[in-house]
Fold this sequence. Notes:
The complex is a heterodimer of chains A (160) and B (120). Chain A has helices at residues 29-37, 39-45, 133-141, 146-157, and strands spanning 10-14, 18-25, 53-59, 66-72, 79-89, 93-101, 109-118, 121-129. By secondary structure, chain A is of the alpha+beta class. Chain A has one domain (10-157): Alpha-D-Glucose-1,6-Bisphosphate, Chain A, domain 4 (2-Layer Sandwich). In chain A, strand 5 and strand 6 (93-101) form a beta hairpin. By secondary structure, chain B is mostly helical. Chain B has 2 domains: 4-70, Winged helix-like DNA-binding domain superfamily/Winged helix DNA-binding domain (Arc Repressor Mutant, subunit A, Orthogonal Bundle); 74-115, no CATH class. Chain B contains 5 helices and 2 strands. In chain B, a hairpin with an 8-residue loop joins strand 1 and strand 2. Chains A and B meet through strand 2, helix 1, helix 2, helix 3 and helix 4 of A and helix 1, helix 2 and helix 5 of B.
Amino acid sequence: MNTTSNTPLSLRTEGDTHIVVTRRFNGSPEAVYRAHTEPAIIQKWMLGPEGWTMPVCICEARPGGRFRYEWAHPSKPGFHITGEFHALEPGRRIVHVERMFLPFQTPDNHVETTFDAESGGTLMTMRMTLPDAETRKQMLSSGMDKGMEASYIRLESQLA
Amino acid sequence: MQSLDFSFAALADPTRRAILARLALGEATVLELAEPFQMSQPAVSRHLKVLEVAGLIEQRVDGTRRPRRLAKPALDNVDQYLNTLRRALAANYDRLDQVLADMNTNPKSTPTRKKIRGRK
Lengths: 160, 120
């Protein structure tokens, strides 16, 4: 579900706990990888909807390294993400875990991002793995936005 | 607006999550819901009550039948979440296209902020 044909971005749910995003870029895998790991570049595009900026971008792009991205908006409360890198293969692959603070903390989201050369550009595939049922249960009992709860119900129902 | 505590409790149980997954396919009566779970009708009814209080499901009156279905707001929230994620990513990657174009022009250097038009 949820694939679109008229934009290069595809976002779909997979199984009970995954979200898979794919996007093609006119740039080498090395360039797209740099854009995901170098703070000066990250701050130019990883901004979400219009109006947001990223005043803080710390990114230790090495296995075991940490990152912290903080977003700010002139009229809305800011939020941030922290995470750790598990594996990095320059120009090929990033494996990391992240969680958001909205300010309440969202559960850990494990993400594997791959960059594959494809017809002169790059196919990026980002596979998010949301928590298992047990982690999810703890997460739900710790307090969570209702919209997020509902999204997990939908994820669970995909293959039911 | 229902208490969030009720929602958390409702979702903490695997049987209730399975019931929600079943209802995501379409409305069903207590009898129909009880069948795959090998549970008594009263036991299923108790689970349904918890889900109902949490605002996750609702009853429809159809003659003597009372089929249950997912509450509309819960579904709206789901779509809202995925759509919000999609919009944020789409905006990000449109900007990244421009950043990559600049990197192609100046492969040795990182593009400067000023080159991204319309950005503060």
